[in-house]
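Page 42, continued from yesterday. The earlier attempt failed because a stray header line got pasted into the input along with the sequence. Redoing it now with the clean sequence only.
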Amino acid sequence: MIRGVWLAALAVVVVVVTTGLAIAMSAASEPEPQPTPSRVYSSCLAADTRPLDPGDDPCEGSGN
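This time it went through. Structure tokens are written below.
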């Protein structure tokens, strides 16, 4: 009887320790959320309807 109680108690301890380790491992393996990258705004919009001449800088302005 005493031996059965000890085996049952040992089984409970093994289950508790195994469950605790599984929870700790799953929590450690989750990637940390990355901060949202800041947005970059540009005052230079290079999307134009006419092709640029060689050497023209789209951020320079119209120049004409």
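Notes: The mean pLDDT is 75.
Reminder to self: strip header lines before submitting.
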